[in-house]
Amino acid sequence: MMKLKKIGIIAGLSLALVACGGDDSEESSAESESNGEVNVGEEVEYTITGIEPGAGISQATNKALEEYDNLEGWTHEESSTAAMLTELGEALDNEEEIIIAAWNPHYMFAKYDIKYIDDPKGVYGGEEYITTIARKGLKEDMPEAYEILDNFYWEVEDMESIMLAAQEKDLEEAAQDWVDENQETVDSWSEGVDSVDGQDIELALTPWDSERASAQVVKIALESKGFNVTLTPVDPQIVFQAVSAGDADASLAPWMPQTHKDFYEKYEGEYEDLGANLEGAKIGLAVPTYMDVESIEDLEPKE
Ligand code: PBE
């Protein structure tokens, strides 16, 4: 059952979309200074290096450009998570300035010396949690699956350990290793749940490693109780649309209360929210720690 297959292809396309940004303004130089201080805006060519256009964090960054007067004239360069991480790695290698759309759980804070900068207007929210949503009627139709989904809860470190291990091997393999090492936790999600005989269930997820990790771990838990699990990666908005329409049975991917708020509210009442499956997430803008900028408000407007 792959009702979402077409939509998955659309999401794939949008992930490949590279929006062009920046302009051909003169090369910034290390001497670019105002009031004796380095003009960070000029150094980064008044550009924030973002990720996929469909991401909640990309929406938030567009909003930040509108809400912060000092970001007047700045460009939000959307591309992909992989492209952003490559640019970040290159900037760090060369001790250059860069401002990225960042989030955790992710290994980027472990792998690179970067720091979030303050967001006094709260455009990126504060602490986020990741929540589980299910289509209406799932509880009645598939009580065993519903119970496992409802019980699924883990910690930032759990998710991050899979993401980190997935640097060296397939994420599926990394998830299986995590399950093997945390069998008790996994068993606790399905304690007292009866096995089924090959029921099909489809989970919609977003295409980031964080959600690929949670979906894969729950897939393994569901399979151990006899389910046939299909995982369908789509853009965040499509996650809500699909679960609301009953095209997907559930999703472990929505970030709240800020990241996917618009979609959450758009479809509210058309799906069931089973509550947080992870707490302590965050989104925001980040810079290398050697950069002398602490807040979005420190950034200079484009002249
Ligand atoms: N993320 C990771 C996604 C959700 C998971 C923060 C990049 C987003 O912004 O939609």
TrEMBL record:
PROSITE patterns documented for this protein: PROKAR_LIPOPROTEIN
GO cellular component: ATP-binding cassette (ABC) transporter complex
Domain of life: Bacteria
Signal peptide positions (record): 1-21
Record keywords: Signal
A GO term for molecular function: transmembrane transporter activity
Short name of one Pfam family: OpuAC
Residue ranges constituting the ABC-type glycine betaine transport system substrate-binding domain according to the UniProt record: 39-181, 200-300
Designated name of the protein: Glycine/betaine ABC transporter
Biological source species: Allobacillus salarius
